[in-house]
Amino acid sequence: MPRKIAAARFVLSEHASSPIDIKGEPHYNAPPIQFNYPTNLTVEFSATNGVLTAFVAEADQGTASIGINGKIYFLKQFHVHTPSEHTINGERFTMEWHFVHQTTEGEYAVIGLFMHHESDVATTAPYSSLIEAVDSGVASCVLSPRALITKCLEGWHYQGTLTTVPFDPVYWVVVKESVMVGEDDLRRLTKAFSQSSSN
Ligand SMILES: [Zn+2]
After folding, report:
1. Distance, CA 79 to ligand 1 centroid (Å)?
2. Ligand 1 centroid distance, CA of 46 (Å)
3. Distance between CA 15 and CA 2 in Å, rounded?
4. Given Cys at both, which of 66, 114, 162, 193 links 93, Cβ 3.0 to 4.6 Å?
5. For residue range 181-191, what is the model confidence (pLDDT) as tens digits?
6. Which residues contact 105 (CB under 8 A, 6 or more apart)?
7. Ligand 1 center to 47 CA (angstroms)
8. Beta pairing partners, 88
9. Whether the Cβ atoms of residue 84 and residue 92 lie closer than 8 Å to each other
10. How far is the centre of ligand 1, averaged over its atoms, from the C-alpha of 28 (Å)?
11. How far does residue 183's CA lie from ligand 1's centre (Å)?
């Protein structure tokens, strides 16, 4: 369960155990995130103990990165939690995507992206094609990773940890704007990706 921490604790030099309950306004003066993602990236799906994770394919390792505060973090994998791990003022979202990046020295930066569901709506592209791929049981697919993350990156930055062992330090960016998923796709997504956590 997320711990409650006061808004005043949202100072980049302070540390918290993730996930947390986020309070207060987004950090509008947070350092910008520079995306260096290729247009097409091959991801491979791997299930461990029923938890599906999308890994950047071996051949594409090191081709997708983000820059924060002058550090370059390479995209390693992404996965989803149902329901969200982070909460905003106590509110939990339908899902939360974690885009896990790491420097060559092993430091983590994770972008957390909320997903909310609505009935009678179409799932936002390119999530619809991603869901199609995992639902049909293919081992890999090619996608545009930048398109998975909303254009508006306003949100909360804080120094936290991985949410499972070994709880390594993580530079967290939790994006305010959530991505939409349709009711049917939500069912397929939940079935494909287990409800268990995978860091
Ligand atoms: Zn995670």
Report:
1. 6
2. 15
3. 14
4. 114
5. 999 888 888 87
6. none
7. 14
8. 22, 91
9. yes
10. 24
11. 22
Expressed in angstroms and rounded, the spacing between residue 98 Cα and the centre of ligand 1 is 5
CA of 54 to the centre of ligand 1 (A): 12
Which structure tokens are listed for 177?
């704007």
The single-letter code of the amino acid at 23 is K
CA of 53 to the centre of ligand 1 (A): 10
- Dihedrals phi, psi of 89, to nearest 5 degrees: 50, 40
**Residue linked to tokens 């960016």:** 173
Q: Residues 6 or more apart from 63 whose CB is under 8 A from it?
A: 38, 41, 56
CA of 173 to the centre of ligand 1 (A): 13
| Phi-psi domain of 120 (left: phi exceeds 0; alpha: psi -120 through 50; beta: other) | left
Residue with tokens 């009711």: 183
User: Is the whole-model pTM more than 0.85?
Assistant: yes
- pLDDT tens across 68-122, in order? 999 999 999 999 998 999 999 999 999 999 999 999 999 999 999 999 998 888 8
What is the SS3 string spanning 91-157? EECCEEEEEEEECCCCCEEEEEEEEEEECCCCCCCCHHHHHHHHHCCCCEEEECHHHHCCCCCCEEE
* Cα of 30 from ligand 1 centre, angstroms: 22
Ramachandran angles phi, psi of 188, nearest 5° = -65, -40
